Amino acid sequence: MTRFIFLAGVSVACVFAQLPSQKVLTVEVAESIAQEAMAKCRADGYKVTVTVVDHANMMKAFLRDDGAANATIEVGRMKVNSVMAFGRPSGPPPPPPNAPPGTPPAGGGLNLPGTINAAGGLPIKVGDQLIGAVSVSGAPGGDKDVVCANAALAKVADKLR
Question: Which of 66, 26, 70, 74 is nearest to 46 (CA)?
Fold first, then answer.
C-alpha cells in the first residue's frame, strides 16, 4: 500500500512539472508601449497609428493620432499579424543564411492573407517567449515606424522580464 501512495505522488508531481509557464502582456505594459511609440513618433513629427496585441494576437492597446491616415489602421493590424504569424519583425523575410548578395528572400517574399511585407511591426518577448507584438504605421517609411516601436520597447524593457 505504501508503494502505491508513493508512485501516485510521483506521477502527480511529474504532471505538474510539465506545465509551461506563460508570461502575459498586461494591459498596463501594452498601454505604456503604445504611449511611448506614439510619443516618439510625435517628437519626430509623424502622425501614426500604434497597435499592440498579446500572445493570442488579440488587441491590447490601440492609438490613432489626430491626423493619421485611415489606412494606417489596417496596415498596422497587418504588421502585427505578420509578427505573430512568423515570430519575427514584419517586413520582407531575410535571405537564406550564407546567401550571396542579391539572393531573393526566403520563401520568395510571399504573404499570408492578412499579413504585409512592410517594416514597422516588432515582436514583444520575454526571453525567447513571444508574448505579443507592436506595430507603428504612418511614418514616411517603415524604417521610421521601426524606430518608434523600438523606442517604446526600450522604455519598457525593465517590465519585460
Answer: 66
